[in-house]
Amino acid sequence: MVSGTALVYDEEMMNYRLLWDDPECAIEVPERLSSSYKRLQDYDLVNRCVLLPVREATEEEITLVHSPEYLDVVKSTQTMDIDELKKTSKKYTAAYFHQNSYRCAKLSLGGTLQLVDAVMSGDAQNGMALIRPPGHHSQRSESNGFCVFNNVAVAAEYAKIKYKVQRILIVDWDVHHGQGIQYIFEDDPSVLYFSWHRYEHGSFWPNLSESDYDFIGKGRGTGFNVNLPWNQIGMGNADYIAAFLHVLLPVAFEFNPELVLVSAGYDSGIGDPEGRMCATPECFSHLTHMLMHLAGGKLCMILEGGYHLRSLSESVSMTVRTLLGDPVPRLSGNMTPCYSALESIQNARHAHSPYWKCLFHDETRLVQNISTKGLSAPAPLHADASAVDEFLENHMKILHPTPPMTTLLVAPGEHTLNLLAGAHLEESTATTEQAIHAMSVFNQDLLNENLLNSVGKMLPALEKLVNRKTRNCITLSPNASLSAAVAVQQVLRLGSERVLCILIGDVDMKPEITNDGKTMCLTISGDKMLEKTISQFQTFIKWKEGPHEGNSFFYALFRFLLPLAYSYQPDLITLAIESSRSIGTKDIALLTSLLQGLADGAILAIVTEADKDVIEALSNVLVSCASMFFGPYKPPAKECIQSLTQELTVMQTYWSMLQCLAN
Ligand code: Q9C
Ligand code: ZN
Predict the structure, then answer these.
(1) Domain for residue 663, yes or no?
(2) Three-state DSSP class for 541?
(3) 205 lines ligand 1 (CB under 6 A)
(4) How confident is the model at residue 505 (pLDDT cuts 50, 70, 90)?
(5) Catalytic residues
(6) Is the pLDDT of residue 77 over 70?
(7) What global pTM score does this model have?
(8) Mean pLDDT of 205-228
(9) Which residue of 29, 162, 316, 452 could cross-link 36, Cys pair, CB 3.0 to 4.6 Å?
(10) Poorest-confidence range of 1-15, 23-37, 625-639?
(11) pLDDT digits over 190-212, tens only?
């Protein structure tokens, strides 16, 4: 099994800087690299990564994307004096050269290719390249926006040739539009390029009409360029998560890439003077975690922008932490996307609906009169610079510490342990009287020795889960939904405040829903006559996967389940999987794995003992946090969508992360 996170870093890339006065370029400083690396060391993350040396990119590699004439220009800067450097720089936009620029640009690109080699060869599962100069603005024959060679674009061409990769996803979460990447791949259907960027109706740099949502690619590449322009500053965690759930992820899963490259710029984070956005470092954990579910986990993060040194280094640290498999911290703040963000999301979805089945089935339309001023301006999380600094200084201290064990297993016998290597077996057990007491409100006809046994063992495990002695817990039970009902009651008693309970299969037993907001229950079933939604805390969806034709459940996940969960913000998740489940093993694995982005990963998974496939899948995602291929994917059946749409109509009035129409 492939494992490990690679880290590319070399302080030699600090050996160039701006040599004259230019306020526009002054923010791109060598300390961007050293402060990021230093912070990774402070959090003891460097030691946990496989360090990769950089190398110089070859001329052959550079010219995969760039013209030989441009290569000659960059090469010639090595021997220039200041005046000549300045003159050459002024030929381009927001660019500057130094005598060491060429050497550093070769290392920056070479370092990127080292990372791609490690991930594609299986030496590492994923990784991050801390490099400069950045790349995403640079074009075939042009330096632009501090970028010399287009690191990510060359990496994509390189992976196509060297590893015969047929589908590459590039996610550009830098706050600027990577127009260089767009130009290079605009007619190429093998590279899906997604970029969100500060746009403000074109008034923000680089002020291009082709950065808007309606530029969707050209020729055979039509539909493979996804732009999500932000028309206001102050976009925050809810806006970014909504953008991923409603625009990027459905399209990306349908595309099903073999490699994911991220133009990881952190000028989209809080405190950055260029972006003026509000996303906290934790948000980058969530974005990273979501992307880890594509391409069998082959994920390469390549640094682009990021000019607030503290914000940059905290966000880089959160990214690497997540790549390493640490729990994803909960998001702070209100999870309601702002009106302007919804407008952008709605328009991007509409522009792409002819090309992607996951969007085609949904109701999409253009915003009639796109607002130039926000109806509801996003509320910045932190008003002034010193408050931002203080927040960044302390944010790690308010996160829950990583629990000492990952998985606690509640199993009646030890014979299942080989399926769950790495899990800790729950040794203690409650007394029979305690078990009977815990089950006293439930149907006594269902009580039997097996069940009492299983519940008795589960009780001490629940305490450890609520008190974060274990990150998650797998319970084998003869009656999963009954165990779940008992568990929900118990964890509430132990102090949980919002429990999300997901029941999969035909169930006759449900946890008691009190409508006080402390529990939310969602049932996924295949054939049963479904009850109507009776409250905002209880919902049912009918979903049935056909055998062996690929999975379509990702549609329900991004359109409904995850937005609902991100709105509700549970502090614990109970997942009960009955043997009558109507969705496949990979669907359950994907669901469970993505749910780890919520509740700090506190998941109680209850599964029937005989369901070996699900036990193995849960072991992969909960115990070993292994990356897997969740595809192949297929479009969802009409009746599944219809059932989902009915529930959506009701639920989105209560839970704003479900909305993807501004009007
Ligand atoms: N006030 C990168 O983040 N200046 N490049 C824009 C707007 C250029 C950014 C001026 C910013 C270039 C890699
Ligand atoms: Zn940028």
Answers:
(1) no
(2) strand
(3) yes
(4) very high
(5) 137
(6) yes
(7) 0.97
(8) 98
(9) 316
(10) 625-639
(11) 999 999 999 999 999 999 999 99
Handedness of CA 569, 574, 580, 584 (dihedral sign): positive
Residue 304: CB within 6 Å of ligand 1? yes
- Side chain identity at residue 620, one-letter code: N
Q: Are residues 437 and 577 in the same domain?
A: yes
Q: Are residues 389 and 413 in the same domain?
A: no
| Ligand 1 closest atom vs CA 305 | 3
Of 138, 139, 144, 146, the residue with max ligand 1 atoms within 8 A of its CB, to mutate for a pocket test, comes to: 146
Rounded to the nearest angstrom, the distance between the alpha carbon of 27 and the centre of ligand 2 is 11
CA nearest neighbour of 657 among 397, 219, 337, 356:
337
Residues 45 and 174 in one domain: yes
Q: Is the CB of 94 under 6 A from ligand 1?
A: yes
**Distance from residue 239's CA to the centre of ligand 2 (Å):** 18
CA-only gyration radius of the chain, Å = 25
Does 275 contact ligand 1 (Cβ within 6 A)?
no
Alpha-carbon torsion (203, 208, 212, 214), positive or negative: positive
Interval between CA 228 and ligand 2 midpoint (Å)? 15
Phi, psi of 141 (to 5 degrees): -130, 35
In the prediction, which pLDDT does 378 show? 53
Number of structural domains (the chain) is 2
Check the CA dihedral 557-563-567-571 and report its sign: positive
352 and 468 share one domain: no
Q: Return the DSSP state at 247.
A: I
- The residue whose CA has the least distance to atom 10 of ligand 1 is 205
Q: Does the beta carbon of 609 lie inside 6 Å of ligand 1? A: no
**CATH number of the CATH domain containing 347:** 3.40.800.20
309 and 412, same domain (yes or no): no
Same domain membership, residue 228 and residue 191: yes
Q: Fill in the DSSP letter of residue 499.
A: E
Assess whether the C-beta atom of 145 lies below 6 angstroms from ligand 1: yes
Is 381 a residue whose pLDDT tops 60? Answer: no
In a domain, 334, yes or no: no
Q: Are 323 and 128 within 8 A, CB to CB?
A: yes
Closest among 423, 475, 473, 431 to 454, alpha carbons compared: 475
Whether 391 is in a domain gets the answer yes
Which residue's alpha carbon is at the smallest distance from atom 9 of ligand 1? Answer: 145
Q: How far apart are CA 175 and CA 246, in angstroms?
A: 19
Alpha-carbon dihedral sign for residues 521, 526, 528, 529: positive
Residue nearest atom 12 in ligand 1 by C-alpha distance: 145
Q: Which tokens sit at 352?
A: 């792409």
Q: Would you say residue 95 lies in a domain?
A: yes
Does 599 lie in the same domain as 484?
Answer: yes
Contacts of 114-117 with CB under 8 Å at 24 or more apart are: 114/8, 114/52, 114/53, 114/54, 114/55, 115/6, 115/8, 115/52, 115/155, 115/300, 115/302, 116/155, 116/158, 116/159, 116/259, 116/261, 116/300, 117/162
Domain of 138, in residue numbers: 5-67+82-327+340-398
Phi, psi (deg, nearest 5) at residue 153: -65, -45
Ligand 2 centre and the CA of 498: distance in Å?
Answer: 38
pLDDT at 513: 73
- Of residues 319 and 610, more confidence is placed in 319
Of 364, 398, 432, which residue is a domain's last? 398
pLDDT digits (tens, 9 = 90+) for 105-149: 999 999 999 999 999 999 999 999 999 999 999 999 999 999 999
Residue 474 sits in the same domain as residue 574: yes
Give yes or no for residue 529 having a pLDDT over 70. no
Q: Establish whether residue 24 lines the binding site of ligand 1, counting it when its CB lies within 6 angstroms of any ligand atom.
A: yes
Mean pLDDT throughout 348-367?
91
From start to end of 225-369, where are the E strands?
225-230, 259-264, 299-303
Q: Looking at ligand 1, which atom is closest to the CA of residue 307?
A: 3
